[in-house]
Amino acid sequence: MKIVYQSKTGFTEKYAKMLGERLGITPIRLKDYRPATDDEIIFLSWVTANGIAKLSKVKGKCKIKCIGAVGLAVPSEENTNNLLNANKICDIPLFYLRGGVDFTKLKGLTKWLMKTIVKSDIKKNVIVGDSETILTKGISFVSEDNLDEITTFIRS
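The chain above was modelled as a monomer; its predicted structure follows.
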């Protein structure tokens, strides 16, 4: 089994490395992975709008044991179901992992959109903390504990 991941600002990469340590598997960046039909992989990638970035690069080209979708939103069944439907996933287990946002690594429209979302989440108390620091640098919700469910699934 392999862990293949796509990361934009580092949160998915952190999860891939933590999961790799738990399972004794060295994670592989998607750009370094060449899919093979007999490969069984755990695919981790970030959420963009309601899409899972670069899922199309592996879907149907290898056996995906499960998907870890890393995003800023608070984990919920509704959120997971939206991702399943939007990405046409019906036969692959999906685990949502709360990541974060790093404004120092974002640019242009993406940065502006994420700031708008984060400002709204701060007002709703979905994100709590020093708003000036959060809106300048970002915030991380990455935690080892967030990997418990996906780890249990993989080991079973």
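The beta strands are 2-6, 28-29, 40-48, 51-52, 63-71, 94-98, 100-102, 138-140.
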